[in-house]
Amino acid sequence: MGELCRIDKSQNVLVVGCGTGFNACHLARKFGCTLVGVDLAGETIKKANERAENEKLSDTVDFRVGDAYDLPFEADTFDVVITQFVSQFLDMEKAHREFTRVLKKGGRIGINEIFKDREMPPKIAGNILEAERIISEITELPFIIHTSGEWRWCLENAGLKKVEIHKNMEPMSLSEAPQMFRDMGGFGFFLKLIINMTKITLSSKVIRNRFKKMDNAKRILVGAPLIKFATSKHVGYILGVGSKS
Ligand SMILES: C[S@@+](CC[C@H](N)C(=O)[O-])C[C@H]1O[C@@H](n2cnc3c(N)ncnc32)[C@H](O)[C@@H]1O
C-alpha cells in the first residue's frame, strides 16, 4: 500500500481508523514519513500513542481521536490518506468525500479492504451474508463486503483519477509466515498476545461469546490461512489507489 501510494519521507500521511497503530507505525518506520492516525475509539488512541513512544516514533507520528465523517483537519492537508479494514464499516460515499477534502491536490487515497466476487453460487452468497451479519453484530457497526467494481466506483465517485484496483485472493503461503511472524514482533509478541487473550477469555462470558462468533465469521470468510474453504475462493482483499486532480 505504501508503495502504491508512493509514500516517501517528505510526505504527510493520514491513517483513518488506525486502531492501536500497528500498521500506521509500520508505515512511518518503513517510509520515514510524517503520519497522523485517527480513530473514533479513545482507548485505541491511547495504546497507539504508547506504541509510537515505545517505537521511538513520537517525533513524526501522532495519534488522536477523530471521526472519519468529520476529520479534524483543514482542507488540502495530506499527501496520502489510507484506510485499512475500515471503509467497509462506513458509508463509503460520505467517508471518501471527507478523505478527498483533506487530501492535497495530486495526493493519493489508498484503501486495503475486503471484496467479494460479483457472481457466485447462492449457497456461498448466503454464507457471506451470514458472516456480514455476525461481524455487524460483534462490532455494532454496519458491515458490508463490496465487490471490486463497487470499490472502484467509490474512488472514482469521490473525484479521484488514475484509479487502480489490485485484487488478491491468495491465502497466506507458508514461505510468507516467518516474515509475518517477525514483522508482528516475533515470539515475545505472540506469547504476550496468547497470555492476554487467555486472561480476557477466562474472565468474561460476554467476551468468550464474542470470540466464538468472531471465529465463526472468520471460518466462513477465510478459513485457516492454509486451508481453502469454498467461500474463500470468492472473497479476498483489494489494494486500491486514486489521486486527486
Ligand atoms: C477493524 S479495525 C481496523 C484497525 C486498523 N486499521 C488495522 O488495520 O489494524 C476498524 C477501526 O475503525 C475504527 N472506526 C470505525 N468507525 C470509525 C469512524 N467513523 N471514524 C474513525 N474510526 C472509525 C474502529 O474504532 C476500529 O479501530
Count helical runs: 8
Radius of gyration: 18 Å
Give the overall form. globular
Which ligands are bound?
A: S-adenosylmethionine
CATH superfamily grouping of the domain at 12-117 and 141-170 and 233-244: Vaccinia Virus protein VP39
Mean pLDDT, as a whole number?
88
The largest β sheet comes out as:
8 strands, mixed
Q: State the distance separating the first and last CA atoms.
A: 20 Å
Describe this structure in words.
Strands 1, 2, 3, 4, 5, 6, 7 and 8 form an 8-stranded mixed β-sheet that branches. Helices cover 42% and strands 24% of the residues. The protein has 8 helices and 8 strands. It is of the alpha/beta class. The protein is globular. Strand 4 (78-84), helix 3 (92-102) and strand 5 form a beta-alpha-beta unit. The protein has a domain at 12-117 and 141-170 and 233-244: Rossmann fold (3-Layer(aba) Sandwich), CATH 3.40.50.
Sum this structure up briefly.
With 245 residues, the chain is an alpha/beta fold.
